[in-house]
Design brief:
- The protein has a single domain, classed as Nuclear Transport Factor 2, Chain: A, CATH 3.10.450.50.
- Helix content is 29%, strand content 47%.
- The strands form two sheets. A six-stranded mixed β-sheet has the order 2-1-8-7-4-3. It has a two-stranded antiparallel ribbon with strand order 5-6.
Length: 139
């Protein structure tokens, strides 16, 4: 069986995300995956799974659309847009939560992935947290 290219790995994760298929998403992460996002820095598949559960339990109808991609060997940089419907409580770093608003959110983000041997070893996501709050009608 041929190993997936780094771009195919990231695309497979996005497809699983659209279906809220956490098991398939996590199958693409290395056991020692590093993850960074605004307010979040963690290491390890178990911690990454818990972080992904936060979004998947707060939002339904998730969609990721990559608008531009740069590939350099094992490194992928995606400029993309995320969409979702806020249908559950959104847990924030620090323990507070935002109750479901029923609002559709959409916003751009940039993600850098490093993929080795068919697994994501590093993911760094940058997005505008204020814009997310504005989409939810909270700012």
């Amino acid at each position: 069986m041929t190993e997936k290219s780094p771009a195919q790995v990231v695309d497979a994760m996005h497809a699983a995300f659209r279906n809220a298929d956490l098991e398939t998403i996590a199958a693409h992460w290395h056991d020692d995956v590093e993850y960074q996002a605004p307010g979040v820095s963690l290491r390890g598949k178990a911690a990454r799974i818990e972080a992904e559960k936060v979004w998947l339990s707060a939002f339904s109808e998730n969609e990721v659309r990559t608008t531009s991609r740069f590939v350099n060997g094992e490194e992928i940089v995606d400029f993309a847009e995320m969409r979702g419907l806020h249908t559950g409580p959104l847990m924030l770093p620090g323990g507070a939560s935002i109750p479901a608003t029923g609002k559709q959110v959409a916003g751009p983000y940039v993600a850098r992935y490093r993929v080795r041997d068919g697994k994501v070893v590093s993911q760094h996501v940058v997005y505008d947290r204020l814009a997310l709050l504005q989409n939810l009608g909270l700012a």
